[in-house]
Amino acid sequence: MTSEPNLKLKLNLKRTFLIGFAFFGILLLWQVYDSWCPTFLTDIFARRMYGISSAELKTAAEDRILNVQWIVGIIMACDNLAALILLPIFGNLSDKTRTPIGKRMPFILTGTMVSAIAFPFIPLLFHYNNIVGMIAIMIVVLIFMMMYRNPAVALMPDITPKPLRAKANGIINIMGYLGGAFATVLGIFLKLSDYINAPDEARKLWIIEIPFIAASVLMVISALVLFFTVRENELAVKLKDEMELGEKLAAIEDPVDDNAPLSAANRRMLFAILGAEFLWFMADNAIGTYIGNYVIYYLKSASSSTMIMTIVGGLGSVIGFATAGFIADKIGRKWTVTSGLCITVAGLLLMCFVRPMALNEATGYNAFPPLLYLIWAIKGFGMALVHNCSFPMVVELCPNSRIGKFTGYYYAASMSAQTATPVLLGLVFKVTLAWRALPVYAAVLFALSFAVFFIFVKNIKAKKLGNAVGLEAIDGD
User: Fold this and answer.
1) Are 259 and 273 in contact (CB under 8 A)?
2) Which fold has domain 12-462?
3) Rounded to the nearest 5°, which phi and psi values hold at 467?
4) pTM score, two decimals?
5) What is the DSSP string of 188-235?
6) Domain-by-domain residue ranges, the chain?
7) Average pLDDT of 98-115?
8) Do 278 and 42 contact (CB within 8 A), yes or no?
9) Strand pairing partners for 366?
10) Which of 2, 39, 94, 274 could disulfide-link 413, Cβ–Cβ 3.0 to 4.6 Å?
11) How many Å apart are CA 377 and CA 375, to the nearest integer?
12) Is the pLDDT confidence value at 261 over 60?
């Protein structure tokens, strides 16, 4: 065994990027799913409830659109409810799995293949007005993505020592946002608003199907790249000494032990992080679920503007993910997360002043408010700081043998939030009949999450003994 004083922790850049292909597939699918499915549901329920055509929805009274959002919220929440149950189960199962290809890879490959096959049937069934079939396929996709998601995310901390996980998390999140950006570019050229606002007989096949097919193909490719380049079992043996040293340098109050329960201090830290996470995911998912409808039905702008806005937000996120690990090294993970939450709240307070603009006669849509681009860049940067550090803080509190289980805790908090928030905000819309409730709702929840994190989470920096610093901390091999 290598002696501890001579062992330095270095982040393997190439290997981390390859692990990032798992996150590439995850965010690619979620971006397509969140950008299109709520509008599919709004369209089909509004037409059925009020007996109007698709083309008439564009000029329908705003209260009709808002009145169906609670139904849309329930459907989206049911998917998240399944995730809330399944994510911890698959995380725990993958911890205990032993196969020749590793403990995470069987779940990643199975989940990817089934999801990829089912995913394009969502828009196809919507095209033929089969709401029951569409919702059933949405459930199938979500179940198998849960099989894939937890093990895929757990793969990074499996083979990355604890002090290096914030930097590694930044890299894999950048890879994920590249996947989301690809889905967004498709949405610019294949405008959902053009399809939604067209008469029923003019709705052309393959306008809405292509992004889903492209997402499925790229998901399969990313999973295969991961499978052929990341050998779980070999890496577990090769990195054993580094992982053990990482345990000793962890940013926690009390050491963790496989054979002992969490200490009281570590348990308090875990509950505080998960509680704050629940609140910020309630806020963030509310924005993600309803922003497409906000743009189409409130601002009455082209959906391609939403996609451009998402790219701008993605650029802000990439900058945040690229710098968050280094910021955390300087000021600690707690202050990095709280700074990100403050920045995000500031952006959403600006969003409260956004109003519909004048009609552009050339396009047939209202002009898109330029302020929203700035808001999305601010929000993207702020939430990147939050997400980059929060997940490593959770898996810091567990031994390496239980990473999947604690990843399940992290996603249980996020998915329970995403189960509650579409329904709650849908009811807020029903009561207020005001799209302007969206940024207010999100800003309040982000502010509450800041308060929980600020008050109850301690700022503990990783120990530096034997730890590589600066450019030495990155291994390009």
Assistant:
1) no
2) Growth Hormone; Chain: A; (1.20.1250)
3) -100, 130
4) 0.77
5) HHS-HHHHHTS-GGG--TTTTHHHHHHHHHHHHHHHHHHHHH--HHHH
6) 12-462
7) 94
8) no
9) 359
10) 274
11) 5
12) yes
